[in-house]
Write a structure and sequence with these properties.
The chain is mainly alpha-helical and about 90 residues long. It has one domain (about 1-89). Helix content is about 90%, strand content about 0%. It has helices spanning about 1-40, 45-50, 55-89.
Length: about 90
């Protein structure tokens, strides 16, 4: 009984640490992805185009950035899940 409770305790600790690290990484990557996209397209200022009302640029920029953020989220979730599985094993 105590070994089971110990494993559950470690799983909770690992999930809290992994969740905190994952949240930090997601916020950090979310702020970096638009800058990376700006470097990929140096001849176009997406912010000015969006302000001018260019919906095509706004839609494309939004889709690329949101897809990158979702991709990073999936990777972080897999890492947290791996930590939980390791704690419960």
């Amino acid at each position: 009984m105590t070994e089971t409770m110990m494993n559950i305790g470690w799983a909770v600790i690992f999930s809290l640490i992994g969740g905190t690290a994952g949240s930090f990484l997601l916020i950090w990557f979310s702020s970096r992805i638009p800058r990376i996209f700006d470097k990929i397209t140096p001849n176009m200022d997406e912010g000015k185009e969006i302000i001018r009302g260019n919906r095509t640029v706004a839609d494309y920029f939004g889709r690329i950035v949101s897809a990158a953020i979702l991709g990073v989220s999936v990777i972080i979730a897999a890492a947290v899940l791996g930590g939980l599985i390791a704690a419960l094993h």
